[in-house]
Specification:
Length: 430
């Protein structure tokens, strides 16, 4: 799968719910009865004592901290990465000063994962950056300064199993189930050809994941690959299983061996709101008149990444009338897609360039005839705009017959783990 899919995206901070106030005194009562005892002959006495509860003390002047995981984007600087992690500018300056002699912090590797513990006031407690598979750069607070370590390590890989239930959003549910950000992103991406996360989620939908986690000396360094997942949407179960064939090709498949990679993704952005659908008559917010809307608008903040919904070639990249900054991709005949109102284009997106499904091609903006930041997305068949939410699009292809036996024996333990998770939220370590 294309790593560009997992470019870091803005995430809401997780605020820990706490008790605002506690009574000064509490009442405690304890009873113990031996098994098989005759309770009618036992003299019972209730003892009530006033217990003073000490005042709660917090290390950061009442601010609570949370863990954040991010994937380094191409062109990221340490300052930009820390800002995305929620670290305030003053703290970021101290980290930069402490890390000036550490080359790895000056040359961040795109696609690598960082893990940080940050307070809600923007103070950094701990920062861990895995460079490759055997090198760890850590930045740790020591009172009002930071200590930087760059060391070679041999992390251990453990298999984690978790499940959750949708109450509102997918990310709210994965947070509640203590599932890392990177795993939540992989979960959404794998099922993006099956489930439209804008329209299809239902309260009570459930999901289960089996994934790798890297540890060193008992400390979590980063999450790894999602090995297996199940998503039950509106009563229908969807399963995805990771398999690497003898030629080294990696992909996700259903238990019956059909690839999870669809010819077209259901949406160019996994988590945004549809602000305007495909219709023959809509009141245009800028032109102030009724006209057809031959596309789907996705509301999102400026700078939100936009991805290609299928493999293809850039047919057009530039300014075009009311579309503003526009990208048109040519896919296998007779299909093409258009992405308008962009604020910027991704690096290398020019006429004739090849793109892969899920690759980031541009960023949401409000150029052209747009009343606010959003993506105008069109799906075209033989050059004619069609409603992508109503089209029946081509599906994926099955696993090669010669690998069927190997596939079955490889994924059988993963299917069993998913079955163990039905109705439970557990963690299993290798």
């Amino acid at each position: 799968m294309n790593n560009a899919i997992f470019a870091a995206r803005p995430r809401q901070k997780r605020w820990l719910m706490v008790l605002a106030s506690l009574p000064l005194f509490g009442v405690m009562a304890a009873f113990a009865i031996a098994p098989g005892a005759q309770t009618n002959t036992v003299e019972q006495e209730t003892v009530v004592e006033a217990v003073e509860i000490p005042e709660l003390q917090y290390a950061d002047s009442g601010a609570f901290d949370f863990w954040r995981e991010e994937r380094i984007q191409r062109g990221d600087s340490l300052s930009g990465l820390l800002r995305r992690l929620g670290v305030n500018d003053e703290e970021a300056a101290l980290v930069r000063d402490a890390g000036r002699g550490t080359a790895a912090l000056g040359r961040l590797v795109a696609g690598s994962t960082v893990l940080a513990r940050v307070t809600n006031s923007g103070r950094l407690i701990l920062f861990r950056y895995m460079v490759g598979d055997d090198r760890l750069v850590s930045v740790e607070r020591v009172r009002d300064q930071f200590r930087v370590q760059d060391q070679e390590i041999k992390p251990g890989v453990e298999t984690m199993m978790r499940s959750g239930v949708i109450q509102g959003s997918l990310y709210g549910a994965t947070d509640a189930a203590d599932i890392p950000d990177a795993i939540a992103s992989q979960l959404a991406e794998i099922f993006s050809g099956e489930i439209d996360f804008h329209r299809d989620l239902r309260r009570g939908d459930r999901f289960s994941v089996v994934y790798e986690a890297y540890y060193h000396e008992g400390r979590l360094l980063k999450s790894g690959r999602l090995l297996a997942a199940e998503f039950v949407n509106d009563g229908k179960s969807h399963q995805a299983l990771f398999f690497r064939d003898p030629q080294g090709r990696e992909a996700y498949y259903t238990p019956s061996g059909h690839s999870m990679k669809r010819a077209f993704l259901k949406s160019p952005m996994p988590f945004t709101r549809i602000s305007s659908g495909f219709t023959s008559s809509r009141f245009h917010p800028v032109l102030k008149r009724w006209r057809a809307h031959k596309g789907v608008d996705y509301a999102a903040p400026t700078g939100t990444p936009v991805r290609a919904i299928s493999d293809g070639t850039v047919e057009f990249s530039g300014r075009q009338g009311g579309y503003g900054n526009l990208i048109v991709l040519r896919h296998k005949n007779p299909y093409s897609t258009a992405y308008g109102h962009l604020s910027a284009y991704a690096k290398g997106i020019r006429r004739g360039a090849k793109v892969e499904q899920g690759q980031i091609i541009g960023y949401v903006g409000a150029t052209g005839l747009a009343s606010g930041p959003h993506l105008h997305y069109e799906f075209r068949v033989n050059g004619e705009q069609r409603n992508p939410l109503a089209l029946k699009l081509p599906t994926a292809y099955p696993l090669e017959a010669r690998y069927r036996g190997m596939f079955t024996s490889t994924v059988e333990p993963l299917v069993h783990r998913l079955e163990l998770l039905h109705g439970h939220n557990v963690t299993l370590l290798n």
